Structure formats: structure tokens, C-alpha cells
Amino acid sequence: MKDILDASALDVEARRILEMNDRGGYSVPTAGLYPYQWNWDSAFAALGYAMFDLARGWKELEVLMAGQWDDGMVPHIQFHKVDPSYFPGPDIWGGVGPVPSSGISQPPIAATMARLIYELDPEAGATPMRALYPSFVAWHRWFMDWRLDSGAVCLTHPWEAGRDNAPDWDGSLARIDPVGIDPYERRDTGHVDPSMRPRKSDYDRYLWLVKQGHDCGWDQARLLEINPFRMADPTMHFTLLRAHRDLAWLGRELGLDTASLPDWIAQLEAGAETLWNAALGAYDVRDTASGAWAQAVSNAAFLCWYACVDPKDSLATYARVQAPVRFGVASHDPESPAFEPKRYWRGPSWAMMNMLIAMGFDEAGLPEGAALRDSTARLIAENGFAEYFDPLTGAPAGGRDFTWTAAVWLAWCSPNVGRGRWAR
Ligand code: GLC
């Protein structure tokens, strides 16, 4: 890795990016490509801000949770100010919450980030955390009520996992005939190289699924009946299980009502078994309609340590898929024919996924955590604060000046990290 002087310059640059992407109480992932507030991006951003401005970190989470719907769902995008540079916007989604929004959620990492921020300064964190706590419980309950299949947490749209075009969805999306969607014009391919973005055939299906939800007013009971795309997914499962544990910890710490959490944790611990694909040697996506496995080793499979579930053979599989990888964790198995090192979730390395995976390794006492932090730090030091990176060459890809990459640098990668869990 570059020396400590460079690291200080990178700290300054990371902070500059977080400040530049601050829209006043909430952040955007990057201007142009993603001009709104995204759910899990915002949770990482909160931790990043908290490294230099604790109050701003809490504010980010407060604005995120203020977009919660009556049923408890916290949407994956909140459209605070309409911006024509992004499609599909609020009219296509027709979200029914207090803020114009999408109609699906995203991996619930916010309670986990809230715990990390709280641990930076428990005294300062007590008041904001007490206020946020009921909204986290309600969101987690929404998943438990609407998104379980044999105890495994499901998604209803590829964007819900935050792994938009992962090969994990290919087989199940192919069964959808995207009839009835209106003609549309993509905006993402105007911002970045189309060879790094999802294909049109995927996009048609993304929009068809949005239309289903929109047309029934995002009624979850109705969607359970009509939506053919319900995937039990390690991303949703492991992030929710981890978030339940962190929320229970916060609740106990603050003397709040944690009554529901032990049972939810137990349900997901049991449900994790139904995501274990023994033939693959990894936790895998399961199509709940057909029962078919995706047969895809993704980076989400390696969140099992983060969720504190039995990793079974995951470490051997990690060593296998990581053998050719030089920077972070590949989002898809490099030996698979579907692997594409620059196309979004079909291979690239994502700094924030690396951080979550490494948290689990560290807590399990595995040396892979420190190695992953070093390789992610090198990736950013040498290639900048890109949205994601080629895992073989480290080449930056997608959007630039990216909020979560800056946040992950400040909170986890920087050798100067002086506070919190990773203090050295
Ligand atoms: C893409 C990513 C998703 C992220 C969003 C904003 O859709 O796949 O994980 O939340 O961009 O950065």
C-alpha cells in the first residue's frame, strides 16, 4: 500500500467526496448517475460522515428512516428532488410513502451501521438511537412479515438485493416475458460505458417487475400472489440477520423493548440452512417458485461470517474463487462462464461488500479479514473512489467520486482510522 502521507491525502479526498455528495441531510451515491438517496448507500454514508461529524452521521440515518412507509418498509430510493438525469423516476415507481420513492427495499444494513456509529460515542448516540430504534424494529418486522420463505429472506426485484445484474437472477428472469411495458429511454448508459451496465433484456424485466408493483399499489399481500420473481437470497438474509443482532444489542444497551428480536434471530438462523447449496459448497440464491438454485458463487455468499452463521465449506470455496483475484472479493466466481470483470455485479469488486465480508472474518478470528482490508485499501489508493473495480486488474469502473467508496475508505481502509472498531 502507498505510504501514510498518501493516506492522509486520501482521507482529505474521501471527505471532499462525502461533502460534495451531501444534499443537505442526505447524500447521493454520485452526481449524475445516481442523483437520489439510496438506502444502503446512505447507511454506509452515515458511517463515513460520522468519522468526521457525528451529528451529520446520525442525520443521514434520520432522513433515511423518515421515508419509511406505514407498513414499515424503507424504500430503496427516495426522490427528494426530481432530477431528470435518472430513470426510472418517481412516476414510474408510484411509491406510497411520505416521500416520493421506489416501492422495494434494499439490504437492511442501517441498524448495523447505527451500532458502529453509536460505538464511536455512546453518550452522543443515545438520544438519536433511541429515537430511531422503533423505526428499525418496524422495518425489520416488515421483512419478517412479508419476505420469508422457509425462514430465508427473499427479494422481489433484483434491485432489492443491491446486486442488480448478478448472474444469480439470470435463469429466473429469463422465464419472465416482459410484455406491456411502455417504451422507455435509459439514462444510466449516458453516464457510463454501456459495457459496464446491465443489458437491455435485463432492463426490460426490471421495468416489468416495477410495473407489477406499481399497478397493485405495492400491496404486499397481492404481490405475494402475482409476482413470479421471489428469490431467497444470501444478501437479504445475512444482512437482516446481522442487523437483528445489532439492533438487539442496541436495544439492550439502551434498555429498550427487544422482545421480538430473539425469535426473529432464531428464525433466520434456522432459515440459513435452506440457502446452503451443498453441491456448490456455498450459500446460494434459491428461486422460491421452482426451488432451483442459482448455482452462483457471489460475494454475498461470504457474508455468512458477518451474519455469524455456520460457514460450512465456505472458506474452501472462498479460497478457490479468490485464487485469481488480486483486489477484494469478486462479485461472481471468476471460473464461471458468466463472469465479466467489468460488468457491475457479474464479477467486479465492491469496496463496501469487502468491508462487510471482512467484518465477519475479523469477528471469526480469520486472517482473511486483514488481508481483505489491505487489498481494498490498495485498490482505492491506486485507482480512486470509483463505484466498483475490476477484481483482476484493479481498474476503476462505473461512476466516480462515489460516496460509499469514500465512506469505506474513511471508516475502514485508511491507515489513519483512529476511532471505532478498527482503531489501530
Ligand atoms: C446500483 C447498485 C446498488 C446501489 C445503487 C446506488 O443500483 O447495484 O447496490 O445501491 O446503484 O449506488
TrEMBL record:
InterPro entries: 6-hairpin_glycosidase_sf (IPR008928), 6hp_glycosidase-like_sf (IPR012341), Glycoside_hydrolase_63 (IPR004888), MGH1-like_GH (IPR054491). The keyword Zinc does not apply. It holds the Pfam family MGH1-like_GH. SUPFAM superfamilies: Six-hairpin glycosidases. One of its GO terms (molecular function) is Glc3Man9GlcNAc2 oligosaccharide glucosidase activity. It comes from the Bacteria. GO terms for biological process: oligosaccharide metabolic process; protein N-linked glycosylation. The keyword Hydrolase applies. Residues 34-405 form the Mannosylglycerate hydrolase MGH1-like glycoside hydrolase domain. Belongs to the glycosyl hydrolase 63 family. This is Mannosylglycerate hydrolase MGH1-like glycoside hydrolase domain-containing protein.
